[in-house]
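Deliverable D4.2, example record:
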Amino acid sequence: MNPVILAGGSGTRLWPMSRQHYPKQFLPLTGRRTMFQETLLRLDGIEGAAPPIVVSNEEHRFLALAQARQEGIDLSSLILEPVGRNTAPALSLAALALLDDKEGEDPDPVMLVSPADHLIREPEAFRAAARAGESLARCGRLVMFGIVPTGAVTGYGYLRMGQAIEPSADGSEAEPSRVSAFVEKPDEKAAQAYVDSGEYLWNSGIFMVRASVWLRELGHYRPDISKACRIAYSRGRRDGKFYRPDEQAFVACPSDSIDYAVMERAADAKNSPAGDGESADCVVLALDAGWSDLGSWSSVWEEGDADRSGNVVLGDVHMQAVDDSLLISNHRLLAAVGLSNVIVVETSDAVLVARKDSAQEVRDLVSQLETDRRPEYEDHREVHRPWGSYDVLDTGDGFKVKRIKIDPGAALSLQKHQHRGEHWVVVRGTARITRGSELFLLTENQSAYVPKQVTHRLENPGKETLEIIEVQLGGYLGEDDIERFDDRYDRQDPP
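Output generated by the structure prediction step:
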């Protein structure tokens, strides 16, 4: 069994905590671990499973590596999408990589495909379902995992269970059935009817399928996606742990989900009166494991630990006469009075206030921020880099002030700026400074100045985080005013 983690989502409905450059899957929403870390540990616990393949956006590669390392997991294979093209192309790249792996034990492995941003409170139940699904997938079936509904939720897609098939050969208690219909997010009345009937499950977005079966079905139903992915993969290059598909070919690939591209079409073909001997069976296994996709702030409220008034509270929050609400403070005191059924989420540069029943509409708000080219769409005020992070404390005409944090052993690129000079003051730790032909150390309460057009580098040779206050002065202070000469993180873009 080869786990494939799809970690390329943007999580726009969880703005302002989730941003394009630091999305939902890399946030700790339900505990101290991030959703990506929880997914890694859940899959790592499956006996006999191979190390996972992670399909991620190019911009998030160091986030994924760092968060895996924090949990003692050394990722060996990351496929980096230059742009997002939804889940069908992402899975296709993973399937091509597995079939191209000449050292793999299985020439045609079963892929356990999981999003990186789901909550599963009972991992052992999930692992048991995965073991049951493996035998079905090995027989050439398209295996879906449907969630036993706990209510008439309108934010999920539904699967209608059809004809039962023989239980899996491993003797498990799973009772798979064919998928007879896919239903888009219903209204409340229809959702209640589905739940009352006992014939429907929530569509979890978790799948199992052989690599060759997926590529065959994709070639049958979406030959355009299949061709684009094959070209992008064949022209790609490996760089250590990373595999980069050809950017031009992948950008030209149509965008589509696993469901729309293959699963729904295969199920419809099998359920049609004429049948379809060429399509694989699309089957579903019921999964009851405390699942949630945490797809909106209302979902986060539902999964949180509520107080006696129904409030889920995180951070420095004081409230009075508040009930059934989600209140999150990340940086300062949040005070609330006389509120009911609302969501309030505070970050360093933005505050979201919404009715709980309007949580799905946050995505539309974020789309407007993107249209308006607001920086809050992409980044938090604290911007993460492979060497650490920086936080813009103040900015004005001709100046910018940053707090820079550099991880132990990390270093910024060797670089220079055409339009600005920089003053550095060490407030914690020891800095190794390259300035032109000079190389020297700075400790706490010492400073240095780097004029514009002078080659320079900041490094942290110590064992604790290095903190620097940087004051930039110049006519242009954009992050793209960087000319790199050496970078241990192989970055070609300005960040």
